[in-house]
Amino acid sequence: MKIALFLALVVLFPARLLLADPAEESPSSPTQFASSPLDLRVAPPYVLFEDGVRATEISLINSSNHKLTYALSFKRMRMLEDGDIVSIHEPRPGEQFADEMVRFTPRRVVLLPRQIQTVRLRAMRPATLQDGEYRSFLNFAVVPNAQEALPVDEKQPTTGLKINLTPVYGVAIPVVVRKGKLDLAVRLVGLKVVEDAKRGQLLSMTIERDGKRSSAGILEVERDVPGTKRVQVARVAGVSVMAPLAKRNILMQLRHPEGIRLGHGTLKVRYLDSVDRHVLAEGQLIL
């Protein structure tokens, strides 16, 4: 199965290039939709059960012009240092999962064009649950219609068994359950500007995370030149470092006002929490 994730990840070098997105991904913004290449939009783009929260819901919308069917299920996945998300076959120390304590309905959704469907989720925390962060991914797999199957290869023999192969695609959003007061410390290190022949100047950095919970926030970059007004040159929402991952490598494309390339001044970077916008970490780079 091929999985597409709502985390604004695009392949480039050993890190992921984060492209500017004016949408702010926040579990506290139910009207903000995350879109996918599968004609499915989901709001919010991730689910968070904090202490005391037992139930919530998400909205699905079919943005295509034809009827679509999705099968819903949980998957266990982890984030890599380049921001990629992969399936978990063997759990590692520190990985804890939410799928055994979260129930959802319905498990199958049929959506007409532009139709909206609500999916309800409930967290059933056991009394013996230890403090920590628990995470699984709610996967939406497209159920192909019979008429959408790939045509049989006409070059196949006219006798014997003929097989049609229909790829199954899916999208997934993280579902997180937290218990207790969980510490978090974040640092921005290794800031440098790198040149790319196609994309121009990029800001490279590493987000280091320590503590018992994931970070999720907005990266903002401003250029500060003495005697001039500070100008924002990059902003990306929905940037996460998922526990227990200790660090994530980042590339951000820099926007140059009036085509001026960065040659002097200071780049000031802030990593803001997605929910309340407090500063998780700051860094700067003297050009």
Beta content comes to over 45%
SSE succession: EEEEEEEEEEEEEEEEEEEEEE
CATH topology of the largest domain: Immunoglobulin-like
Query: In terms of structural class, how would the helical and strand content be classed?
Result: mainly beta
Report the sheet with the most strands, covering strand number, pairing sense and barrel closure: 6 strands, mixed
Protein name: Pili assembly chaperone N-terminal domain-containing protein
Keywords: Signal
Organism: Pelodictyon luteolum
Signal peptide: 1-20
Structure characterization notes:
- This protein has 287 residues and is mostly beta strands.
- It folds into 2 domains: 23-147 and 162-179, Immunoglobulins (Immunoglobulin-like, Sandwich), CATH 2.60.40; 184-286, Immunoglobulin-like, CATH 2.60.40.10.
- The chain contains no helices and 22 strands.
- Strand 4 (34-35) and strand 5 (40-43) form a beta hairpin.
- It is globular, with a radius of gyration of 21 Å.
- The protein starts with a strand and ends with a strand.
- The model is unreliable at 1-14 and 21-35 (pLDDT under 50).
Summary keywords:
287 residues; mainly beta; Immunoglobulin-like; 2 domains; 6-stranded mixed beta sheet; 22 strands; globular; disordered N terminus
